[in-house]
Design brief:
Elements lengths: L2 H19 L4 H14 L5 H4 L6 H18 L4 H11 L3 H16 L4 H19 L7 H12 L7 H12 L11 H22 L9 H4 L5 E7 L14 H4 L3 E8 L2 E2 L13 E6 L1 H7 L5 E3 L3 E2 L2 H4 L5 E6 L11 H4 L1 H5 L1 E8 L2 E3 L13 E6 L1 H9 L4 E2 L10 H19 L5 H14 L5 H7 L2 H20 L1 H13 L4 H16 L4 H18 L5 H11 L10 H7 L6 H26 L3
Antiparallel strand pairs: 1-4, 1-5, 1-6, 2-3, 2-4, 7-10, 7-11, 8-9, 8-10
Length: 591
């Protein structure tokens, strides 16, 4: 083993640890990988940054814009109505329709966008039927995952592996080449959830109030500031009451008028403050100097809301500018005239020191806000509103040309009239020219974290190939399993891929294993196609952990899931898919 090979494998090993550790974002890790190879001289700067001009990266960016245009035109609004109607009739039928709808939509539209579209619908059905969201959201995520492997356009991973194949002198994937294998996995997944999985899904208690949902066992009280209060004459964020981490001021009333929620508001004698706190803090509040306290009562939705402000449940999507930032950094209360009452994340539900909590994808916030401000916050797309479902309005002027352009992209690419990259970029330019989406909206629609992550992880495959590390790893695989034949070798690749993808980025997993799969197939003198299909399919089958795929992370908070829920429901499904892949892939894509 040469020093260069050892260095490349060492960098990749560190990267895998960082992906699992989750302290850095996946795009940051991908950039660090690329820079490590460039700075070390393994790759030239041109080679290192070539991921940004790779056809896969460009295609993925274009497909983000196309998906956004379809959603903005309201072309999928009727799906929510169908699910709402079915949900009121039969839970089992609802699961069948939900997973089928998510699967079909995800075959052509980014799966995270599909889950974002359908999640508010599922939450509404949950409220209407009194069935816990935990019984519905995991099937939604799994349906989207399995639908995404049914066409080339389904996920960025499919496009990435196709680009790697093309870069190695192989034919890129056709639009529907994945369909003949992917449909088997989708159908098997739906059957599993409907027949078995629904009984394994957790039976969480269905709460009637949002305050119950967020475990707010707190008390609500009101105090009137007297002249001798140390807080009088000070701004809220500088006053003893405003800076006490055990007290949360949620409303200030002055002379019968509710003031705007602003931390810079100066407190005056006679101000009435509505405060949320736990029982010990409430007892201390009774003895606070210069404050007359009214009778306390347990917190609920009714007494937290008022004539001006309402309670809302929102989720932080992966594209939000709030990710990796705290409420204090965002100056949330000032910018949005809104107050965060509680935050539910993978670490649990937070009720105290909320301004210091660093927000992550999938976190769910209980917010008290003015409806107008909430609408502005929703339209910023930094949050996904879960507590109220309002379908996008049809825009026939934009919907028809958008759908025609989307269909044209599929037809042109499927018939070979133009490469998928060219067809997708031309489609996006047409959408902008006919003003169904503005350039600003197009830029905003692109998930730039994904783009930077793709550009970075592509350098792994290039470094493996340039140093010969891919050949070394392939030789070890052949020495270990070559005597058992290509079927066992393919099954092993599928197994390694789905294990890795449950703990690190699916794109990083595919970028790492696809080049090795090609060399391994060539070493045993068989067609690399089935091996690439095994990597492609398995990279999207992250059923066993919440961090394995973006849609799994999105549903974690709203579904109030635990890590073990993914293990219990996802492990049997993963084993089924592994066994199915061992026979289906060689049959559909012969060696």
């Amino acid at each position: 083993m040469t020093f260069e090979i050892a260095f490349v494998l060492g960098v990749i090993a560190v990267a895998i640890v960082l992906f699992i550790w989750e302290k850095l974002s996946i795009d940051t890790i991908a950039m660090l990988i690329m820079l490590a190879f460039v700075v070390s001289g393994i790759l030239t700067p041109e080679e290192g940054f070539s991921g940004f001009t790779n056809s896969a990266t460009i295609t993925v960016a274009a497909m983000f814009v196309l998906s956004a245009a379809i959603f903005r035109a309201g072309a999928l609004s009727h799906v929510g109505g169908i699910l709402t109607t079915v949900g009121k009739k039969s839970y089992t039928l609802f699961l069948l329709v939900l997973m089928s709808s998510a699967g079909v939509l995800s075959a052509f539209i980014n799966d995270t966008a599909v889950v974002a579209l359908l999640m508010p619908v599922v939450m509404q059905v949950s409220r209407d039927t009194k069935i816990s969201p935990a019984k519905m959201l995991m099937p939604l995520s799994f349906g989207a995952l399995l639908g995404g492997i049914c066409t080339l356009l389904g996920t960025s991973t499919n496009i990435l592996v196709s680009g790697i194949a093309e870069a190695n002198g192989l034919e890129p994937f056709g639009i529907f080449e994945l369909t003949r294998g992917g449909i088997w996995f989708l159908v098997a997944g739906i059957i599993y959830i409907v027949a078995v999985g629904q009984f394994l899904l957790p039976k969480r208690k269905v709460e009637q109030d949002l305050t119950d949902t967020f475990d707010l066992g707190s008390y609500l009280t009101e105090i009137i500031l007297q002249a001798d209060s140390p807080s009088v004459g000070k701004r809220l964020n500088e006053s003893p009451i405003g800076t006490d981490e055990n007290l949360q001021v949620i409303q200030i009333t002055r002379n019968g008028r509710t003031l705007r929620l602003d931390v810079s508001t100066e407190l005056l004698e006679g101000d009435e403050l509505k405060i949320v706190c736990d029982l010990p803090s409430m007892e201390k509040l009774q003895h606070r100097k210069g404050a007359i306290m009214s009778a306390a009562k347990k917190v609920n939705d009714i007494n937290l809301a008022d004539d001006r402000y309402k309670l809302y449940e929102v989720m932080i999507p992966s594209t939000s500018s709030f990710v990796d930032r705290s409420l204090s950094q965002l100056r949330f209360k000032n910018h949005y005239d809104a107050l965060v009452i509680a935050i539910r994340s993978r670490e649990g539900t937070h009720h105290e020191r909320l301004s210091k909590v660093v927000l992550q994808q999938g976190d769910v916030l209980l917010i008290k806000a003015d409806p107008t401000q909430m609408l502005e916050l929703k339209e910023s797309e930094d949050v996904l509103l879960l507590s109220e479902y309002q379908p996008e309005k049809y825009n026939f002027k934009h919907m028809i040309p958008t759908l025609l352009i989307a269909l044209a992209i599929v037809v042109v690419a499927a018939t070979g009239l133009a490469p998928i990259t060219l067809a997708a970029v031309l489609g996006v330019v047409l959408l902008i020219l006919i003003r169904t989406i503005t350039p600003e909206e197009a830029y905003k629609a692109v998930h730039w974290k994904v783009i930077f992550m793709l550009a970075g992880v592509l350098s792994m495959g290039l470094a493996l190939q340039k140093t010969g590390a891919d050949k070394l790893l392939a030789e070890n695989m052949v020495n270990l399993l070559g005597s058992y034949g290509p079927h066992v070798m393919l099954s092993a690749f599928f197994g390694v891929t789905f294990l890795l993808t449950n703990f690190m980025s699916n794109n990083a997993t595919a970028a790492l294993l696809a080049p090795i799969a090609i060399v391994t197939a060539q070493a045993i003198d068989v067609d690399p196609r089935p091996f690439l299909m095994a990597v492609t399919f398995a990279a999207s089958m992250a059923f066993m952990t919440p961090m394995g795929y973006q849609t799994n992370a999105m549903i974690y908070g709203p579904g109030n899931y635990r890590f073990k829920d993914y293990v219990i429901i996802g492990t049997p499904l993963t084993i089924i898919m592994w066994l199915l892949a061992t026979f289906i892939i060689p049959w559909m894509y012969p060696f």
